[in-house]
Amino acid sequence: MIIYGASGHGKVIFDILKSRNIKPEYILDDNPEITEFKGYKVVHEPQENTLKIPGILAIGDNTVRKLVALQYTGAIAKAVSHSSAVISENVEMGDGTVVMPGAVVNADTIIGLHCIINSGAVVEHDVRLDDFVHISPNAVVTGNVEIGEGSQIGAGASIIPGVKIGKWVSIGAGAVIIEDIPDFAVVVGNPGKIIKYSNE
Ligand SMILES: CC(=O)SCCNC(=O)CCNC(=O)[C@H](O)C(C)(C)COP(=O)(O)OP(=O)(O)OC[C@H]1O[C@@H](n2cnc3c(N)ncnc32)[C@H](O)[C@@H]1OP(=O)(O)O
């Protein structure tokens, strides 16, 4: 496995792999000032074997992760979860998706490519997460919720059952979402209110 990104997010992905006894081959990061990461060599250019070894994009920002994914020509690793995460056997997860320590993903949920289910987050039954979604630490996505591409649900936020959240939405930390949210909205508070719109 190659970890693409010697970042804080990369540290947690490193721990996920360690919990599964997977040793990264090396870390790839374009910052020439970073030469070592968790005792592993950091390379700054793709290597001869980069295209052959499955890589995981350790980039927390959803937009940047998508841009890198679109340019990355190597193999993408299958979804990987920390050994302490609880994932129903009926869950589908796209390649490049990571599930952090203590997260729960329940039955018949479908998660897209390159998503992040962060530490302690709960993604309930029959949820649909499109590609590049990030469910932040301790957020709760209840049953039958749908979340569009690139949206981030902030730390500790809650979404009530059946709500549809558009693409590239930012839900603020601690928000409580009780109604559908349109694309690109930035939403904060309890109950969640739209404060502005962002562009992808
Ligand atoms: C492992 C990890 O670390 S994973 C990282 C997880 N990250 C998160 O959970 C971050 C979630 N992001 C947030 O909550 C952000 O504050 C956002 C996306 C909602 C808004 O960010 P910005 O667009 O930069 O907005 P900005 O900081 O300018 O705030 C705009 C207004 O919203 C208010 N606001 C911002 N965030 C929140 C919030 N979470 N709850 C309530 N009000 C908020 C601000 O006080 C400000 O109010 P004002 O206009 O009356 O002064």
UniProtKB/TrEMBL annotation:
This is UDP-perosamine 4-acetyltransferase. The keyword Repeat applies. It comes from the Bacteria. Substrate binds at residues 7-9, 60. GO terms for molecular function: acyltransferase activity. Pfam families: Hexapep, PglD_N. NCBIfam families: NeuD_NnaD (TIGR03570). Belongs to the transferase hexapeptide repeat family. Acetyl-CoA binds at residue 134. The keyword Transferase applies. Residues 2-69 form the PglD N-terminal domain. The active site is at residue 125. The record marks 126 as: Increases basicity of active site His. Keywords: Acyltransferase, Repeat, Transferase.
